[in-house]
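Example record for the data management plan.
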Amino acid sequence: MTSDRDIGGVIGSLFFFFIGAGVFAMSFEMSRMAAMFPRTVGAALAILSAIYVVAALRGYRGEAVEATSSASEQAEGLARRLTLLAVMIGWALLFPLVGMFVTSLTACVILMFTGLFERIPAQRLALYLGAVLGMVVSFYLLMSKLLHIPMPRGIFF
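Corresponding structural encoding:
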């Protein structure tokens, strides 16, 4: 291998490939309905990781945005990453206490605002908020009603 290949990415992708393959393999010990979610996620993780390994070994190398950014842009990017980290940790910790729907909706709205880089018109904001609400409602109904995945009740539903 030459130095122009993303060796760190390959190693990370191989790690996630084996995690995905392991989850997929362990799903065969579950009932058919219970295995649906881990089997799908495990297969997707393994397939996407394998695609990246092949691409990286063929010379694909992603460019870091920070390499050409100013110090203020790098600081803004760091703040967005830290916000993402804090929201995900908060979501995971509050999920069983508050409930899936409320914590997921709150986390998605916070992350949506974190991802906006400029002011948007009220009409577009309403459209974005409606899309977030529709996404969270869809996932909630999919997991709780269709897949019958037991959700923690929490304070709210």
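Summary line stored alongside the record: Helices lie at 7-26, 32-57, 71-98, 100-115, 122-146.
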